[in-house]
Every structure is written in structure tokens, then in C-alpha cells.
Write a structure and sequence with these properties.
The chain has an eight-stranded mixed β-sheet. It has a six-stranded antiparallel β-sheet with strand order 1-2-28-27-26-25, with no helix packed on it. The chain contains three helices and 31 strands. The longest helix is centred in the N-terminal third of the chain and has 17 residues. About 5% of the residues lie in helices and about 45% in strands. A hairpin with an 8-residue loop joins strand 19 and strand 20.
Length: about 375
């Protein structure tokens, strides 16, 4: 009997250690015991939507401005400039090579804006192109071209004179995408249904379709993707988005892994695992209701990610979720930060411990993940 009790106790303790325990409320919000809330960086100049880090510089966009920060010290970012431009929606996925930055305007007009950002304290708009924008636009081949969510390809070899160069969706199984990601030089992965893997290395204006991913179990619209280590990993990571869902029902936007092994032979990716959010009570790490939606959003894998590892996932009112991907593509939640009065658009690693949570309402929340 004692032996049985000991085994049951060990099993219980093991199961407890695998789950993210709540550390309770902090100044910024609720966290699991392995996440520290460090500080808040206010962003009063509009709704913070997305960011990208190139070297020591962070480019942060909103609906009416963009800002450039020096993040040499990730705990104390220094804002070098803020550039207002009036209301432009939405440019969630920041496209830049550190020399030029693309602002892809969807509303009120479909315009691509090209900014010279070499002088971090004094960015200058150097080109625009009517019909070249969209909800998002992604740089290809060091921003010599952009691929828009609407399908438009723009030639940026002369960034001051952008010109329409084609449509990547022409003749493809998907007519557009929420976003595209250059997972390796000249190779684009679409966040669409179905998923498209495109090769623009030989001819960026007429990409070749390499593989497709489609599965009826996908809920919500495919939102964003990452294929770690320049498209060499066995599993590619996707999020899907479900806006306007006040409660998590189990059929909302999700975070997913897709198996890429054998794609050169089958020309297909296969859905492996799905992680979905749940409604809660805050004290259990989940809010009882959502404003924007019960949904995964922008995310990034850990700097040391290799054949699995940690991912920081922006999740609207669910804040930042930390999930771990196994070598078999299985997903397990291992931590969280749920902000007070916030709605997290994106979560990105600045170092192997520090994460910036970009929040529509709050600005930037700086977190530290303590691996066990």
C-alpha cells in the first residue's frame, strides 16, 4: 500500500510540474510562476500593431505612426524617432531590411509606402505606389521585391520608384493571404487556406508552387507562419485567427504545427497538432471573455529553437502564451502573461530570456521567461 501511495504521489507531482503554475497578479497582469513581468513602455502615439528587430534597432508600427528604438539594452529601449503619418491601416507585419521600411496601407487606400530608415532619427518617405499595398506586405530578397496579402508583387530595386511587377496568386490554389513570410531567401510561405509554399528565386515576379497544406480541421483564418532555421525544420508553425469571439469554444483560432517531411516528394504539408485557448477566471491564467477574439496571432520561436523548443505567442486578451514544441511536433503550454486591460498583437524574443509583448492597448510589456 505504501508503495502504491508513493507511486501515486510521484505521478501527481510529476503532472503538476509539467503544467504552468500560477504566480498570481503582478503590476502588469497575471503570470505563471516561470514568467516575470519586468516593465511597461508606454506607446501613446497610436495602436501598437507589430515590430521587427534588425541588429540593435526595433521598428514598431501603429495605425498612425511608426517608431524606431535602440534596443542595445533590451530592458531599457531608447526611442530614437517617432514618425506620424495620419490614419493608415494596418501594417501588422513590419517589413524592413534596416535601410528601407515598407508600410503597407490597406485602408483608407490601397497604397504601398516606402521609407528610408537609414537615419534612425529622421526617417523619410521616398516612394509610394497606388495599388501596391494591402493588409500586409513582405520583403523578398532583401527588400528588392514585396509580396502583398492581395497577391500584388512590387519591384523595389529602385525603392524611390516602386512599380507593379506581377501577382503571385495568379493560377494558384489561393487567391490571397493574410500574410506571407520569406522563410529562406526567395522562398515564400503563405498564411492562407490552402497554405502555399512558393519559390521566387529564379523569377520573383512569377513564383513556382512547391507545396500545399490544407486540412478541414483548421478553424479561423490562417494568420501567420514561421518555418524556423531557414525552412530546414521538420515542422512549420502557423497561427489562425478568429475575430469577434467573446468566449473560447474550442473552434476558435489556433496555433498549429504542420509536418514538412517528404514535401519534395508529396508536395504537401500535413497538420500535426493544434493548440487552442480556453476561457477562464484570470487566476487560472486565462480571461473569462475576449474583446478582439479568442485567437492566436503573431509569434516567434526562441533563438535556440532547433527541432523543437519554445515559442512566444501573442494571443489578444490571452496575452503572451509560452508553448513548447516537441521533436514530434506536439504542442504544450508552459507559461503565460495575461495583461491588465490589454490585447496582445505580437510576442517576440529580444534575447534568450527577454520577450517584448506588443499590445494594441498598452504599448510594450517586457517579460522574462525563466526556463526550468
Amino acid at each position: 500500500m505504501k508503495k502504491l501511495i508513493a507511486v501515486l504521489t510521484l505521478t501527481l507531482l510529476t503532472s503538476i510540474s509539467l503544467a504552468p503554475a500560477s504566480a498570481g497578479p503582478t503590476e502588469g497582469g497575471y503570470t505563471s510562476d516561470n514568467v516575470e513581468y519586468l516593465k511597461h513602455i508606454a506607446f501613446e502615439e497610436g495602436t501598437a500593431t507589430g515590430m521587427k528587430v534588425i541588429g540593435k534597432y526595433l521598428y514598431l508600427t501603429s495605425w498612425k505612426s511608426f517608431s524606431i528604438y535602440d534596443v542595445s539594452d533590451p530592458l531599457n529601449p531608447v526611442r530614437l524617432s517617432i514618425t506620424p503619418f495620419g490614419f493608415k491601416f494596418e501594417n501588422e507585419d513590419v517589413a524592413t531590411n534596416g535601410k528601407i521600411m515598407i508600410f503597407s496601407e490597406q485602408l483608407p487606400q490601397n497604397v504601398l509606402h516606402v521609407w528610408d530608415v537609414e537615419d534612425k532619427e529622421n526617417p523619410q518617405e521616398i516612394g509610394t505606389l497606388d495599388g501596391g499595398g494591402g493588409h500586409t506586405s513582405e520583403c523578398m530578397l532583401k527588400c528588392k521585391y514585396t509580396y502583398s496579402s492581395t497577391g500584388v508583387i512590387v519591384d523595389l530595386r529602385d525603392p524611390a520608384k516602386p512599380k507593379l511587377a506581377g501577382n503571385w496568386a495568379e493560377g494558384m490554389p489561393a487567391s490571397g493571404a493574410h500574410d506571407l513570410n520569406e522563410v529562406a531567401p526567395g522562398l515564400m510561405l503563405s498564411s492562407s487556406n490552402p497554405i502555399l509554399y512558393l519559390d521566387g528565386r529564379k523569377n520573383p515576379t512569377k513564383p513556382k508552387l512547391l507545396a500545399v497544406g490544407e486540412d478541414e480541421r483548421v478553424t479561423g483564418g490562417i494568420h501567420s507562419n514561421r518555418w524556423p532555421n531557414k525552412a530546414t525544420e521538420d515542422f512549420v508553425l502557423f497561427s489562425s485567427e478568429s475575430n469577434g469571439t467573446g468566449r473560447c469554444t474550442g473552434a476558435n483560432g489556433a496555433f498549429m504545427t504542420w509536418d514538412t517531411r517528404g514535401w519534395k516528394r508529396t508536395h504537401q504539408f500535413k497538420l500535426t497538432d493544434i493548440y487552442q485557448l480556453s476561457s477562464g477566471t484570470y487566476t487560472d491564467g486565462s480571461p473569462p471573455a475576449n474583446g478582439l477574439g479568442c485567437s492566436a496571432h503573431w509569434f516567434q520561436e526562441h533563438p535556440d529553437y532547433e527541432n523543437g523548443g519554445l515559442v512566444a505567442l501573442g494571443s489578444y486578451e490571452h496575452g503572451t502564451r509560452f508553448v513548447e514544441i516537441s521533436s514530434k511536433g506536439k504542442i504544450k503550454e508552459v507559461g503565460y502573461f495575461v495583461p491588465w486591460g490589454g490585447s496582445t498583437s505580437a510576442s517576440y524574443w529580444l534575447t534568450d530570456e527577454i520577450v517584448y509583448a506588443i499590445d494594441y492597448s498598452r504599448g510594450i510589456d517586457i517579460l522574462k521567461f525563466n526556463a526550468k
